[in-house]
Amino acid sequence: MALIANSDLLNVTDYFANAYRLMKPALGLSTGSAVAGTVRNTLALCTTYINALSDSQQKADLQQSGGLVGATVYLTANRLAMQLRMVIQDINSHCALRGPAVNASIKSLVSYLLYYNGGGGGNKFSALIDKNFADLWAAIYGAGVGLALPYPTVSFEPVSSIWGQSPEAGAAYANGFVSATVGGTGNPGFTINNALYAEQQPIAVVTTNIAGGTGVIQVTAGGTDDQGNSATWGPVTLTGGNNPVAALTQQTISSGAITAQTRVTVTVGSTAGIVAGSILICNKGKPDQEWIVVESVPSGTTLMASFNKSHGASATLDGNTSTSMGNASTGAGRRCRAISLLSFTVNGHNAGIVEIDGSIPRLPI
User: By CB atoms within 10 Å of each CB, which of 55, 175, 293, 305 scores lowest?
Assistant: First the structure.
């Protein structure tokens, strides 16, 4: 019996990550209170209705076991996590049983992830676990020293004002890592807590149309890399000609309908202004609207992403013009923890806003 490949392990843990992510709001756990449309709120409404009955004996009979109140109390994130504990223990046990045959250091899921993220089994950041799985793990095992999944094994959510508008976002990320008006130096934004999460690859995103240019525009970002060293990214020439616009030309998916909870490569008219890590909105403004993260761009007309919702044929994609910031000045493979300033090389440009965002490798399905 062989140790599970890291690509397979990431796929398996992604399913549990997504299950935990989907179950919390459906049950009514995300806000800590009963919210309309959730299981928790339904049970609360039932309790209110029973308590309003005029017959006191009926009220007593219908609540004599305490089961209704107990069920409402039971619906907590930690209780939910306990339901998944056994299958998570199976993963941990597999790593303990099969890991030493690959490397003596592999004795658990924690040591497995450390081995494949810079510990000899792969490059740093090459096998990152999803943040939602890390939340599930912490709910089961705790988040204290030696208990939480360690750095650098956990991927954070995209540090982006665009992602910040999605219903899945944990924060608004108003400036991404940093944003600046053309000619300015920037408004610093979010800093990744590297005690918990891996740093990210930066991408430049046009959030307000750039104008006045008679030549290309370049941007350079300065900040801190994953080693804590001062680093720069760029200069890079922004995609989109002399005056890049914020909104991508809306793309229509021509490769057919999309099945929910699948990772697929789709065909569009053009992937200009789309890079690995770009955040796009599928079927913007429609009932099946969702935010997706581009995982790769194999060609000028194809991109790969995970879709959690089903979409009929000819679904549309909207987003913002993006450009990869490339390698850090401190070396290939270094990632961004924070950006403190943004500078421009202009050719008459006098308007526009550029934001440096952080990208993640994938979303769970």
Answer: 55
Distance CA(156)–CA(197), nearest Å, equals 6
Neighbour-count burial of 284, counting CB atoms closer than 10 A to its CB (0-12 exposed, 13-18 middle, 19+ buried) = middle
Q: Are 60 and 50 in contact (CB under 8 A)?
A: no
Q: Please say whether the beta carbons of 227 and 246 come within 8 A.
A: no
Q: CATH code for 251-319?
A: 2.40.30
Task: Please enumerate, as own/partner, the contacts of 230-235 that have beta carbons within 8 Å and a separation of 24 or more.
Answer: 231/328, 231/329, 231/330, 231/334, 231/336, 232/328, 232/329, 233/202, 233/325, 233/326, 233/327, 233/328, 233/329, 233/336, 233/356, 234/204, 234/325, 234/326, 235/345
Candidates 335, 341, 356; CA nearest to 156 is 335
Q: Where are the domains of the chain?
A: 6-24+82-155, 30-75, 163-245+324-359, 251-319
Least confident range of 31-40, 205-214, 215-224, 227-236: 31-40
Kindly state the DSSP code that residue 4 receives in the 8-state scheme: P
Other CB atoms closer than 10 Å to residue 69's CB: what's the count?
12
Query: What Å distances lie between residue 73 and 47, 81, 222, 251, 314, CA to CA?
Result: 12, 14, 48, 46, 45
Contact 85, 79 (CB under 8 A): no
Give the type of residue at 103. Answer: N
Nearest Cα to Cα of residue 222 among 338, 303, 126, 335: 338
Facing residues of 359 across strands?
A: 201
Mean pLDDT value of segment 23-27: 67
Q: What is the DSSP letter of 63?
A: T
**Helix and strand tally (H, E) in the chain?**
8, 16
